[in-house]
Amino acid sequence: MGPTHPESCSVIVVGSGLAGLAAASAALRSNANRVILLERAIKPGGNSIKASSGMNGAPTRFQNQAHPDNAFFSDTLKSAGKRGTFSAVERDQRKRLIKLLTNESAAAVNFLADEIGVDLSVVTLLGGHSVARTHRGAGRTPPGADIVMKLLQSLKGDSRFDLRTGCEVTKLIQSARSCDANGPPEIVGVEYLSDNELTSLAGPVIFATGGFAGDTDNLLAKYRPDLAGLPSSNEPRPGMHGLLSNVGATLVDMDSVQIHPTGFVDPLSTSSALKFLAAEVLRGEGGILLHNGRRFVNEIDTREHVSRAIMDLEYTSDRPRQWSVQILLDPGACRAAAPYVSFYEQKGLMSRKKVSELDGTTKKTLKDVSMAAAKHNADLFGRSTFGSWALAGDQEDDQKEVSVGWVTPVTHFTMGGIAINEHCQVLASTLGASELIVPGLWAAGELTGGIHGDNRLGGSSLLECVVFGQIAGEQAAATCRK
Ligand SMILES: Cc1cc2nc3c(=O)[nH]c(=O)nc-3n(C[C@H](O)[C@H](O)[C@H](O)COP(=O)(O)OP(=O)(O)OC[C@H]3O[C@@H](n4cnc5c(N)ncnc54)[C@H](O)[C@@H]3O)c2cc1C
User: Fold this and answer.
1) Which residue range or ranges hold the FAD-dependent oxidoreductase 2 FAD-binding domain (predicted)?
2) What confidence tens digit (pLDDT) does each residue in 121-142 have?
3) How confident is the model over 184-205, as pLDDT tens digits?
4) Looking at the annotation, which residues are catalytic?
5) What is the CA radius of gyration of the chain?
6) 3-state secondary structure (DSSP) of residue 314
7) Dihedral angle at the C-alpha atoms of 75, 78, 84, 90, nearest 10 degrees?
8) In whole angstroms, what is the distance from residue 105 CA to residue 457 CA?
9) Ligand 1 atom 51: the closest Cα is on which residue?
10) Average pLDDT of the residues of the chain
């Protein structure tokens, strides 16, 4: 049994990304007296606000009703790979968490659509999914921003909600006594720093501080030294995993890190550690990757494979560690990916050039690709489709325009993190028959590990924030009522 708190008890949520917001919302719906949300940044939303592809859910009313989707659990398990299968306890724990994630996914979509008013009516198929199940809106606002802003709006309408930004939690406060003689002491509150002043708060604590892909020189360097110094699609900020392991939390899968092969290098700030993603659709619609004017990989192979092929080339800078690879879209690919291309061109991340302005090696490559795209030749790298490629490989190409940008691999998502059970209680030990928890402490979102294993399916992170954030919020609010 967890600790109990007095009548006036407040639920403390740390981190205002989607996991923290979902937790706060569920705690209020579970009749918490008060929810205090602490956020170290000045603006709320974390990395969640940047999410651009969408959120998974199945079976939902927005999916194709002619083909019921029963494969979300098996797709997720397959994507998790072999991690955690060496012990039956670990394997069963992962399966239980995946079952919960996928079983609750339709309810999570319905909650956002029906109660929060988020448009999730457009459904797409992302890599690794056997069925289209990633939901986003039909408008121009990306799904992460839409979900975060609308959830925040609904929370701000509740007088029991207290959002404190610019407040960094620096310590978890432990009770002097333990609930379980074998386990760590219970957590009874936090200490946070704001304007150089330390403040203590008492109450059950939900941690939702996100992953560590942006913590290049510390946590990433510790668990994946081969990726140290890489730029990231995530905000550069420290992972908070150490704060939790200091009070007894177990870490799992910490070396499992997702890399995205194409983050844009902005010509105006080449050394920035934070990169804008070059969406996969650019390559899907025919975009090719070039090093000194030559191709070196099948651009539509897995993220892992394409990233490795780039990282096998010689890198051009080590602060951050990045490579000089060009992404090039011909006129057909530019047309097919027009909304993306024009957005990146406006931001100065891509620019137009006539084919006649390109160097001889690049022109020769374009000719070879045009032959392969028209099926006159087999592709040297085994690429089976060039999407909407339209150049013909003849003289007339010279006057046509292509769009080019500079890209490099970025760290994107960390699958590992704090071990939790199905109640989102933080585990002190995952091994052995009896599960030990850190009482008074819950965790949700990218901070946690033990679900995605080798590879997170696109769209499943926003989902895990909603599903596990809500469970954490309900559970923490329940201890206040005891
Ligand atoms: C560019 C991009 C696109 C993505 N697209 C998708 C997508 O389409 N679909 C999908 O499912 N996933 C996507 N992801 C992944 C997904 O957005 C994240 O994994 C998820 O939003 C993480 O949510 P979170 O609430 O766990 O953490 P975050 O949203 O990162 O929030 C954590 C918050 O905690 C705060 N914090 C940290 N430490 C402290 C502290 N000590 N005290 C107080 N506050 C603290 C941080 O400032 C931050 O605001 C994308 C990620 C990126 C970067």
Assistant:
1) 11-462
2) 999 888 788 899 999 999 888 8
3) 999 999 999 999 999 999 999 9
4) 260, 283
5) 24
6) coil
7) 40
8) 14
9) 51
10) 93
